[in-house]
Amino acid sequence: MTLLDEIPETRYLQLAETLAAAIHRGTLPPGSRLPSVRSCAQSHSVSINTVVAAYRQLEDRGLIEARPQSGFYVRATLPALKTASAPSNRVEQPADDVLALIDTVFAAQQNPAFTNLSLACPQTVDFYPGGKLGADVVITVTPPA
Hints:
The chain has five helices and two strands. It is mainly alpha-helical.
């Protein structure tokens, strides 16, 4: 039984968390080389694909970097924590040109020659000739007398 068996997540996330904790504790200091994919897979009893996915997860978090033909290394500078900014309480009024654009759209929708293609079912008979199709179906389905 390994440490990975204790955490109820997917294997690669478990491994990524284990390695991230080692990086934050200083067990894997900045600039140090991570174990090769094969040796990490053997030592944690996981597949090579699991280790690759865990290393990619750590890369996405900015904790490690891949060096071509050399392996994976702990980044020299770890990403800084993001600070949250307070949301603005002020709501800005829309610009006059936005209101004019909205008026133009609503006016165009009142035009009978306008077909709104953003609707799931345009309202003109040119697109869906239901009446004509209905008559054809009745003729086709009705048995000859």
